[in-house]
Amino acid sequence: MKVIIAVLLVVLPQILCENIIKLDLSPEEAQKYIDGANSVLKFAPKLNAGPIPDGEETYYRGRIIDNPSNFIKETYLANQFHGQNGLGQAKFGYSDWNQARQEHIDVNGKTEGSYNYVLPNGHNYEVKYWADSEGFHQTDNRPEPVLVPVTDTPAVKAAKEAHAKAWEEAAAAARASGYDAEASEDQYNYKNYENDGPTGPPRGFFYNIDYPVHLIVDKSESNSP
User: Fold this and answer.
1) What is the pTM of this model?
2) DSSP state, 144?
């Protein structure tokens, strides 16, 4: 029974996942895909975990491991999607084993999104944000930072003073030479480039792709059975 369950955990997600790549869509067609796209933050599900295959050259934290028996190989089903309707609306997102994000932009340019991630200490932080005519806004579950006023060391203070002095001396020398910053801009010939590409009615696109992500984990740090 355990073998059957293990096989289903590996095969079922691959059967259920459906990669979608739709190009050159009408705004209405693209909008249907955008409306149906995932809006819930979730981490990529784990497909399986097991020993590193014999003879497989594997890296851990940038170095080739010489003791593969102390590590396991976990595989996750990651996802990313992106859609635009050609009229200003767009939506994109992704999910990985320890982070996820999604964002939506409406026809008026208002942006709403969220993302979450897991720190090495195991804490899961989630951030929600939105941007509108009143600026950028954010809420999250991160602890309030303790802000400590920055005080320049004597060396930093001396360096700032030396820089300010050198700047003033350079500016005075430029003024004495008759240099005019605004007039110097006239020597450049600016050209307005026009878009010579194809034109026509607005078109959109949408894609949703699942793909495996392999992670090498130290057995002492893994929560896999």
Assistant:
1) 0.68
2) P
